[in-house]
Write a structure and sequence with these properties.
This protein has 168 residues and is of the alpha+beta class. A 5-stranded mixed β-sheet has the order 1-2-3-4-5, with helices on both faces. α1 packs across α2.
Amino acid sequence: MGDVQVRPVRPGDGPGCARAWVDAGRHYAAIDAEQFQIPTGTGLVDWFERLHANLAADRLVLVACIQQEVAGFVSAVLNSAEPDAHWELVRQLGQSRVFVESLVVAERYRRQGVGTALMKEMERWARQQGATIVSLRTPLRSPMSMPFYEERMGYTRDGAVFRKRLRS
């Protein structure tokens, strides 16, 4: 297919981001339809264009392209050290840290190094911002993301998120 090129998101990337987002929705909805859904396509491209139009300095959105086509993207936010961290229990709150909000790769480009390239470039940005840690959430039942983060990217599991569906 070609080499993966990673760059900051720019106007016109909405269609490619939307395609990758819908592919991710299909993937995760198949794993857990109670938690995930396939996003509505109507207006999705415009939503991405608006979302990425004026990013704050503490936000990063990178796209990976193969032969000029958007193959995936990563979105992350930088969180500064908390001023009252010396009273907190969690040590990391006293450090600058990055949270990965999303990493998605279009289905046709999976397992071609797109996710790895995006994460490595995001981590480079995080280091440049003075971050000492990167964290993210992913479903434990995902047969793709768990091995990707643990085996390929060197991330470790650090806690658990519990949920309970409340019915009225």
